[in-house]
Amino acid sequence: MLDLPARPGPAPKVVGPAPHGQRSQTAPVMLQEELWERMRALPFVYMAPTLVSVPHARSLFIPEGIGTGPREAFQAGREWAHIHPHHDGSLHLTLTEPLKDDIEKSGWGVRHPEQNTILVYGPRDRAELELVWQLVQLSYAYAVGEVS
């Protein structure tokens, strides 16, 4: 379990299930880009067209043979995370059920109504960027088999 602080303020407006995304309290583009650069720099990940999200979502995959994450650690194929276009700024991650519970209870995101992912709200400031970055790293660890 993760000790997440409560997310300040009301939850953003979310639409879905298809597309499933954030429609208010959009993360500043510079924070979205900083998060994306960190995500892309994780070992062994590569970017490819999403298998499950909207056009222009930026998706990350882990090659076959890297890590031992369970099937549930991937959204489709070897895609483990994607960040939505700038007008949205949220991201879908795969995480363990207890972590998804923690994220929902603390107000940092909501489960996808049809897929085994959680929508994590985009960071509104630098402190939130660091928290969301922690969640991304946990998702990555799940995909490579470091978290079960």
CATH classification, class level: Alpha Beta
Q: What about the largest sheet?
A: 6 strands, antiparallel
Judged by helices, strands and strand pairing, the structural class is: alpha+beta
What order do the strands of the largest sheet run in, or round the barrel if closed? Answer: 3-4-5-6-8-7
Q: What would you note in describing this structure?
A:
With 148 residues, the chain is an alpha+beta fold. The chain has a single domain, classed as Aspartate Aminotransferase, domain 1 (Alpha-Beta Complex). 28% of the residues lie in helices and 17% in strands. It is built from three helices and eight strands. It has helices at 29-40, 97-106, 126-144, and strands at residues 14-15, 21-22, 46-48, 58-61, 79-83, 91-93, 109-111, 118-120. The strands form two sheets. The chain has a six-stranded antiparallel β-sheet with strand order 3-4-5-6-8-7, with helices on one face. A hairpin with a 6-residue loop joins strand 7 (109-111) and strand 8. Helix 1 packs parallel to helix 3. It is globular. The termini are close together. The mean pLDDT is 95.
Compile the SSE list and pairings.
Elements: E1 14-15, E2 21-22, H1 29-40, E3 46-48, E4 58-61, E5 79-83, E6 91-93, H2 97-106, E7 109-111, E8 118-120, H3 126-144
Antiparallel strand pairs: 1-2, 3-4, 4-5, 5-6, 6-8, 7-8
Short description:
The protein has 148 residues and is α+β, with helices and mostly antiparallel strands. Helices cover 28% and strands 17% of the residues.
